[in-house]
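Researcher: Batch entry, complex prediction.
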Amino acid sequence: MSEFLEFRNVSKRFGTIQAVESVSLGIKKGEFFSLLGPSGCGKTTMLRLAAGFEHPDAGRVILDGEDITDLPPNKRKVNTIFQSYALFPHLTVWENIAFGLRVAKRSKRDIETEVEAMLRLIRMGDQAHKKPDQLSGGQKQRVAIARALINRPRVLLLDEPLAALDLKLRQRMLIELDMIHDQVGITFLYVTHDQGEAMSLSDRIAVMDSGRIEQVGSPAEIYETPRTSFVAAFIGDTNFLEGEVTGLVESEYCQVKIADIPGLICFNDKSMKPGNPVYLSIRPEKIHISRDSPEESRLRNIVPAVVEDMIYLGSTTKYWVRTHGLRVQVLRQHFRFFLDEKPIRWNDDVWIWWHGDDGFMLDRYRAMDEHLVTLPPRKVGEPEDNDEKP
Amino acid sequence: MKRSRFPFIVTLAVLFFFYLPIIILIVNSFNASRFESGWQGFSLMWYKRLFHEPEIWRAAKNSLLIAASATVMSLVIGTTAAIALHRFARSRLQRFHFGLVYTPLVVPEILMGISLLMLFVAAGVELGLFTIFLAHVTFCISFVAMTVLARLQDFDESIVEAAQDLGAGWWATTRRVLLPMLLPGLIAGGLLAFTLSIDDFVITFFVAGPGSTTLPIRVYSMIKYGSPPLINALSTILLVFTFTAVAASQRLSRSRH
Amino acid sequence: MRRESRRRIREVLVSSPSLFWLSLFFIVPTLFVFAIALKPANPYGGIASGWTWDNLRSLANPNYLVVAWRTLWISLLSAAVCIVLATPIGYYLARVTARWKSFFLMLIIVPFWTNFLIRIFAWKILLHPEGAIKKALAFSGLIGPQTSLLYNAGAVVLVTVYTFLPFTILPIYAAAEKFDFQLLEAARDLGARRLQAFARIFLPGISRGLITAVLFVFIPALGSYVIPDIVGGPSGEMIGNKIAQRVFVDRNLPQASALSVVLILSVLAPLVTVLVLQRKREKPESLL
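Model: Structure tokens for the complex:
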């Protein structure tokens, strides 16, 4: 499938801040594509470049083969859902939805038919006469969507549309958005800082940081095979383990020494050679923990550790254990009634283990990305780990 | 998105329109010519002449006296009005009260002038400085009330609650928290009242007696029957005076933040 | 219950100074005007006893009608010009950064710290037949050598606009400040051209400010006295002049009152209309 919406080497700076730096991105037709990243990463700027509210300092924006970089926003066949919805307060729901068609001078009959159809789609036919200040957050969002979709845009741009809603509502709207995308079939470009939204809705995600794209891929690719420490830490939680390759094992694995733990096995998808330094990212749920020592196995990495911290979360518990000077986060799901399992407590000696396939080698590691990972609860008076010198 | 230049151009044009007459006035006040027909050299003669006009000094004194007293009175009444309007906002009485306070702001001055004149004539009160004082207080109350009310509405109620939470009673809260925070509003309101009073012509004209002139009344008769260059000089002085006074008040209210 | 009544007592107490003063010096005098309009004039310049409709009947005089009509169109035109000038300015000020905002606002307000008579006087000089402006316009052929810029209704409109423009700019600016400019982006996103977005979204969005601005010009302009007195000449006379004439020249207070009654009613009309419209807006169901 060719790229439907393309950013070619776009850059945009505001004053001294480089919001977007030489970013190239291709979005496929009909895709639900998300731009995910922390505030200030440039994702909203990208959206505004697509909508036409900003003009890139360099680079081009191409839509369905046509260069739209110099077109003003009202001439582009894209529509935006703003974070605050931006419903016109002096117009009713009906008039808000009809706005784009009115401006395009469509016939009265056409407008009526289309608006009624949209009202049915969002199931607000009996509220068409209300004004925006009489609507709830979820209703406003639906009106904003209808107002945009009625113009049959080629791409729908959504700027953190769920940010203003409370949790329950957000969950409901997530499902609605998904449904609307499936029903209507147009390309969605979705901007958010919430990984849950991005992961559950998207066909593909682009993770952004400081004006650049860190990685593009499907939600599973992003989660299981993060290329950089930023992606690994921004999405979910992870453990960063620094080590050195000490040998090759079979054709696909290698031996890694981490801290002073020798002989750890890791999948060698980067074709590393002995002597190469390596950073591993291992997700906490891939690590097992128990008071009893596990069965040994060829590809299993088993390490003794001491429990330092834990948080009980109901269906799971997070443990932070210390081994060989390293702190490792482990997530354990409770398969059985909690009180039937053998309890693991503070300062217990435990065993942790993981499969060699489950650690992933990063392309790039930055120490500053560690702060994105969830820290264990501290006791009052204890210094933060970051304050200690290595 | 590209921004249109049009609003900016209109703003500049209007500013030019605003300042043109004033600049001409100031420039002409230093013009040695008598008849507005071209520049005849720099001169301070009109300022000197001004200093020797006893009528003007008397009028200035009256204006200041009335302005000072009207300001004090209207500050007191206007502030209580604002407090009532804010504290008891929803009641029927306050809605009427608000209408009563708001209306003088939109009524043409001539109506206020003539109605007060009728009152004084009907009540047999002699027209003079006192009637001018009464009239000035009447219209200043509205301005003070609105200024202080705006300030009250911006007020963060949770600060008062915090004070109460920390143990302050009604008087302590008012003295230590409310009034200090309200002070800029009071100063702004007071200054507004003072300026309006010094400046007022129409209402004053209607309720002034034969012996009582204020500065604006003097200026008016000078415009109708007197010497134009003197007015230029007087205007420039008034301009400088008001400018410094208001600039000082702005500085004062800002430094309190 | 006791708390409720204590609160009411406090409310009445705090409100009483202004209620008392304004009732005595605002409401009562207005009632007097209405009353005196119905009394005959004493030939020595006072008010005679008894009641009469004469004053009100004399209002039908065609001269009065001419003056009344002129007052109306001058006020309307001034209000219109002010709005047309003030709207782009309010829009511009709401969009610039805070430093520029206060700078421009200062610039706009400063001329208005000068005495209002003096400003009118300055225009009298500027518009003078021997003045620079007249000479420049006549020279460039825009007006004939005999046209006077002064002492006519046009001069009154010009100076009225000059005087009231800041009072128009401020409420429009205040409304524009509260306006969510992202709505304009949304309008453009949906296909509207700049001017369409301005007319369909911005103007309705600041409608409260626009109405306040119109009232702040129209109503005081109706009661203009000084401006037509100084720059209006005989062909620029407005109701205010007539009232003053009756008071100071003719010493006919009842006639002056009668004219004032007309002015009061014509000022009340727009005020009440606006109030009713505002109520309508806040409670649409009440009109069903």
